[in-house]
Amino acid sequence: MLFPGQKVNSRVFSAVADKAVIEWLLEESNPCIRCLTLARLLGYSPECKEVRKAEREILQYEPVKKILSKQRRNGGWDSSRTWYLPKYKSTIWQLLILSQTGINPGLPIVKRMCEHAFRFQTPYGAFHSGIDRDAESDWGRLAGCLNGNVVASLCQLGRAHDLRVRKAVDHLVSIQESDGGWGCRSFGYHRRDRHSCFMGTICALEGFLEFQERDGSNRLNQPISDACEFLLMHRLYRADHHRWQVIRSDFPKLRAPWLVNYNILRALCAITRAGITEDSRMHDALSVLVRKRKANGRWNLEAPWPSTAYLSFGRTGTESKWVTLKAMSILRRLPATGMVD
Q1: What tens digit of pLDDT does each residue of 44-77 get?
Q2: How far is CA 3 from the centre of its chain?
Q3: Considering only 126-140, 153-167, 176-190, 283-297, which range has the smallest mean pLDDT?
């Protein structure tokens, strides 16, 4: 385990972009990963012929095709009373997954899905679950997890400049807690906790990052910095009040795409996207990530999905292109020297 003051070695990253792994990610069998690798890892233009081709093929990729086949006329996957239940089958869960696939934001099916999401937004910007008929009594409007996930998803789907998304961002800022995170204490859960919720914090942070990258302003710099500080003060997954014990056994386990889980892969993605690449408090988590890399340069999916509906995105214990792409993206952002053993 690495802590501040320990010397670290960066040579382990010398082969991060090795050709064999890139070729594996670019295989046509998974057009989502191929599209994301070209556009986000290799920096190809969105207008590039190869990116466009992969983007078109995403609609025929079996996991995506299966989800879209169940979309209703109202744009969602539910009756419109609540878009949160049944859990993992209603609209919000499909929004979260589809937004991470590289799907074309301009498609009519995507536009209808986004408009369905806005039906669950209050006039002042908060999204709610729809479980309670009175939005002001609904737990979701104060939840960093729900609001952050929705903001991040809508931004990824081309809605960052929609005034409704801007209102949602302002609402997220207004419910950020004094320790820099977001929590459940405001609506009754974890009242005795000494700090915010890791899940709520990572989702809100991702929402801010997705919005700011497209908005181009720096008005979220402080909220983003405060959220990163909350994660860093815990070394991304350790209890600062309990001799740096691992907070939850699933935090070091790698999983992607994201749903309702927090793990070091997700945290490192957000931290490095925020421009933090040399803070010594992230070394421990980085060291864990690098040690988990297999001899062939790939990473496994290590945590089970919360619903069997998503098994088509990978099975626990098998090599995962989703995890590998995220891990390589993190390592690409790091400086050439001074990181991990």
Answers
A1: 999 999 999 999 999 999 999 999 999 999 999 9
A2: 26
A3: 176-190
Q: For the whole model, what pTM was predicted?
A: 0.92
Range 248-254, long-range pairs (CB < 8 A, 24+ positions): 250/303, 251/198, 252/285, 252/288, 253/302, 253/303, 254/289, 254/292, 254/299, 254/300, 254/301, 254/302, 254/303, 254/320, 254/323, 254/327
Residues in the chain: 341
Average pLDDT estimate for 300-311 = 92
Any bridge partners for residue 182, and if so which?
197
Q: What is the pLDDT, as a whole number, of residue 5?
A: 39
Other C-beta atoms within 10 Å of 187: how many? 16
Residue with tokens 């020297």: 337
Q: How far apart are CA 105 and CA 26, in angstroms?
A: 22
Partners of 127 in beta bridges: 121
Hey, what are 333's tokens? 């952002």
| Whole-angstrom distance, CA of residue 270 vs CA of residue 81 | 33
Sort 98 into a burial class: Cβ within 10 Å, 0-12 / 13-18 / 19+. buried
> Each residue of 70-108: pLDDT tens digit?
999 999 999 889 999 999 999 999 999 999 999 999 999
In contact, 196 and 172? CB cutoff 8 Å: no
Say if residues 325 and 252 touch (Cβ distance below 8 Å): no
Q: How far apart are alpha carbons 272 and 329 in whole angstroms? A: 9
Nearest one of 76, 202, 186 to 140, comparing CA atoms:
186
Q: Which residues contact 236 (CB under 8 A, 6 or more apart)?
A: 251, 264, 267, 268, 271, 281, 282, 284, 285
* Domains of the chain with CATH codes: 1-58+234-341 (no CATH), 61-223 (1.50.10.20)
Helices and strands counted in the chain (H then E): 13, 0
Largest interatomic CA distance in the chain: 58
